[in-house]
From TrEMBL:
It comes from Heracleum sosnowskyi. It comes from the Eukaryota. Belongs to the IAA-amido conjugating enzyme family. The keyword Cell membrane does not apply. The keyword Ubl conjugation does not apply. One of its GO terms (cellular component) is cytoplasm. Residues 355-430 form the GH3 middle domain. Keywords: Ligase. GO terms for molecular function: acid-amino acid ligase activity. Residues 446-564 form the GH3 C-terminal domain. The lineage of its organism: Eukaryota, Viridiplantae, Streptophyta, Embryophyta, Tracheophyta. InterPro entries: GH3, GH3_C, GH3_M. This is Indole-3-acetic acid-amido synthetase GH3.1.
Length: 593
């Protein structure tokens, strides 16, 4: 069912009115916009190796395109992408020069994906960003009277053998002139200095951004980070470091731990002795109970601006606790491959978030998601943007200006309705993702490999892993992976020691992909992996419980990831020992495995 026009509410200024009118126009004519986008992409890329390989012969219509161009995954494109990464400058996938690679979540082989992009994609991303505040201003008045405290960070950059930069999409955006020289907008003023955001040392960056937010606590009207996990990391940082932050404010001098010259120079303009503010921060932060700490420190906060859909939904209760129940706004839906759309009702409940696809961003198709279907993939016909059905689930397939053609993104979406003729979607989950704390994503095959590798350390003790399962523990900050092991100890007097099982934890981490290890080593956004050894017979009890709830004994398989509270309680009640990685796994910015 179509929602009411967003123009039903009066925009706050002429700039907002133009942005909202643009949304109305492209969503009202979604099919026409989509055909134009596809024709533009195919016309400009007609002479590329990729399209010539499938003998498209310059055709720009959807029917010919669909009949000749196959649906692909990253693994299918990897040989072409590797050629570009190695320095091949010919028109392989795109007629425009590849400007850099945007790194994405790991492949099944544990490598970080490299997504080729072109300079004009920055303009397309900036256009979507420019629509966010005009929509938000319809729901939250007066945002021009204060500032946003956003914890934003860059990550390490590497270069491919051919010399092209490879970095996450947000690192690319924050380093661009679109961000660094953005014009003043009273509705989008942030407390964090650009110098602090662009510092690759996460501690120095966080310290400086938090300090600026504390100095301007009365001006802060919204708190945000990209993901919910990022905002919780900031709160945890405040818990651990408030004495030093209060001392900086009390004395008006920056901690000696902050050595970055650009940060020290910009913070010199911010710092001033304020004993009264330092005392307030000390008084609030020294309390054991941190419930509602956000509104105690930043009393004028109207909402939290964070993604809490998909895997991030696990953080909602913790955010509610720390914020005192502030609304959580999920504003946009994007990935390294493409920016997709925005939430036209950003103040809705997290469980009701729907993203409206902006039809000008790329050419969109949708593969009906039938997890239990026995039909071959080719017989499941892709559906156009305007033809999806409410209530149905689909996997997103995109064709982009940068040279991805009928590319499976791996996101599972559920249609909730339409805005004009553009569909709106719930983000359901990442396809095949099993565990996720931050930007990491670990699938079942990867977890299995890690368990097998770690369990080899037990062989000399004549011990083996009988069964295992896992869950992403987000009650700790940062969150961490928990792996439940049931062991078969064949020599009673030779059971694995705490030291050996700690080594098993590290061995598992070494087997996980580079995205996970970067989160552990460089970003500190994931905590040490934990193995909890459970009593013998625990997984039989788990099966008995599942059968009592209707599972078939013939088809039962131990779940490789659990989240259902009664199952968690059963497992935890059977734990006989817990073990953690004692050191960090190996990771360097050059590592992609």
């Amino acid at each position: 069912m179509a929602v009411d026009s967003i123009l039903a509410s009066p925009p706050v200024c002429e700039k907002d009115a133009k942005a909202l009118q643009f949304i109305e126009e492209i969503t009202r004519n979604a099919d026409k916009v989509q055909q134009k986008v596809l024709a533009e992409i195919l016309s400009r890329n007609a002479k590329t190796e990729y399209l010539e390989r499938f003998k498209l012969n310059g055709a720009t219509d959807a029917q010919t395109f669909k009949s000749k161009i196959p649906m692909v995954t990253y693994e299918d494109l990897q040989p072409d992408i590797q050629r570009i990464a190695n320095g091949d400058m010919s028109q392989i996938m795109c007629s425009h020069p590849i400007s850099e690679f945007l790194t994405s979540s790991g492949t099944s082989a544990g490598e970080r994906k490299l997504m080729p992009t072109i300079k004009e994609e920055l303009d397309r991303r900036q256009q979507l960003y420019s629509l966010l505040m005009p929509v938000m201003n319809l729901y939250v008045p007066g945002l021009d009277k204060g500032k946003g405290l956003y914890f934003l960070f860059v990550k390490s950059e590497t270069k491919t053998p051919g010399g092209l930069l490879a970095r996450p999409v947000l690192t690319s955006y924050y380093n661009s002139d679109h961000f660094k020289t953005r014009p003043y907008d009273p509705y989008n003023v942030m407390t964090s200095p650009t110098e602090a955001i662009l510092c690759v040392d996460s501690f120095q960056s966080m310290h400086s951004q938090m300090l600026c937010g504390l100095y301007e606590r009365q001006q802060v009207l919204r708190l945000g980070a990209v993901f919910a996990s990022g905002l919780l990391r900031a709160i945890r940082f405040l818990q651990l470091n408030w004495p030093q932050l209060a001392n900086d404010i009390r004395t008006g001098s920056l901690s000696e731990k902050i050595t970055n010259p650009e940060i020290r120079a910009c913070m010199a303009r911010v710092l001033r002795p304020d004993p009264e503010l330092a005392e307030l921060i000390s008084k609030e932060c020294c309390e054991e109970n941190w419930q509602g700490i956000v509104t105690k420190i930043w009393p004028n906060t109207k909402y939290l601006d964070v993604i809490v859909t998909g895997a991030m939904a696990q953080y909602i209760p913790t955010l509610k606790y720390y914020s005192g129940g502030l609304p959580m706004a999920c504003t946009m839906y994007a990935s390294s491959e493409c920016y997709f759309g925005l939430n036209l009702n950003p103040m809705c409940k997290p469980s009701q978030v729907s993203y409206t696809i902006m039809p000008n961003m790329a050419y969109f198709e949708f593969l009906p998601h039938e997890p239990n279907s026995t039909r071959d993939l080719p017989t499941r016909k892709l559906v156009d943007l305007v033809d999806v059905q409410v209530g149905k689930e689909y996997e997103l397939v995109i064709t982009t200006y940068a040279g991805l053609n009928r590319y499976r993104v791996g996101d599972i979406l559920r249609v909730t309705g339409f805005h004009n003729s553009a569909p709106q979607f719930n983000f359901v989950r990442r396809k095949n993702a099993l565990l996720s704390i931050d930007s990491d994503k670990t699938d079942e095959a990867e977890l299995q490999t890690a368990v097998e590798k770690a369990s080899k350390l037990l062989q000399e003790l004549n011990t083996s892993v009988v069964e295992y399962t896992s869950y992403a523990d987000t009650k700790t900050i940062p969150g961490h992976y928990v792996i439940y092991w049931e062991l078969l100890v064949k020599e009673t007097g030779n059971s694995p020691s705490n030291e050996v099982l700690n080594k098993c934890c590290l061995e598992m981490e070494e087997c996980l992909n580079s995205v996970y290890r970067q989160c552990r080593v460089a970003d500190n956004s994931v905590g040490p992996l934990e193995i909890r050894v459970v009593k013998n017979g625990t997984f039989e009890e788990l099966m008995d419980y599942a059968i009592s709830r209707g599972a078939s004994i013939n088809q039962y398989k131990a779940p490789r990831c659990v989240s259902f509270t009664p199952i968690m309680e059963l497992l935890d009640s059977r734990v006989i020992s817990s073990h953690f990685s004692q050191t960090l796994p190996h990771w360097t910015p050059e590592t992609r495995r």
